Every structure is written in structure tokens, then in C-alpha cells.
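$ run holo --ligand "zinc ion" --emit C-alpha cells
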Amino acid sequence: MSCIFCRIVAGEIPAEIVARGDGYVAFLDVTPLADGHVLVVPVAHVATIEDLTPAHADTLFQAVRRLAGPTRAAVGAAGSTIGINNGAATGQTIPHVHVHIVPRWEHDGAGSVHTIFRAGPRRPVAAVGNAIRAQLGS
Ligand SMILES: [Zn+2]
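-- output --
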């Protein structure tokens, strides 16, 4: 088992675990973007959101919902940015789904999710909507 998150889940390597439940583990990132930067991972080793079973997805996001408030309160933050790098092309370096909960403060110098992307030409919204609905089969 070489996946570092699977090894944390299994207790093979130490981590600052803040919560553990049926199907998930939450621990502090060892290179935090801010105090209280929590990672929430499913126990199951799956690379992307698309690979999660519906039940595992429910468990993961229930855990994120449960942790967001206490994590923010613990460090006196005003909010949090919650994000997932979903796939290697997005910067996901460990192919085991993990949700970042990063506490935020007013004027902390970090941007919103929107600041990740540069302005540029985009396909018409209606055409993209049609393409997604076609993929969904609806
Ligand atoms: Zn894993």
C-alpha cells in the first residue's frame, strides 16, 4: 500500500487526525495553506469524485459539512474555502479523493475559487449546457 492517505487511514503513518467516522478520516494537512487546513478523505481508495460510490460520496460530504463549522471556530476564522482538485490535470498530486477545508479571514491575501482561472474565450453557455445534458442522458 503506497498511497499516503490509505496509510494514514490504516494508522501506518502518523497524522493529526481531527475526526474519524464510518467511511472517512479527517486530518490536518502537513503543509497547511492556513491554520486549520483540514483534509477529509474517504476510507476507500478512489482517485476522483466520479469514482466514489453514491454512498461514499454522501459520507464524505456529510463529514465535510460536519467539520466546516468547528474547524472555522477552532482557529477563529471568518469562513473557509472548500475545494477538491479532481484529477491530475487540476494539480491533484495524491490520487485519493481529498476535500480541502481551508479557513479564511477577511483580507488574508488569498483569492476566491474564481481567481484560479484566467479570463478567455469560452464556448456559448447554451452549447455547453446541451453537451452536459447529452452526457447525462437527459
Ligand atoms: Zn489511497
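-- notes --
The chain has a mean pLDDT of 97.
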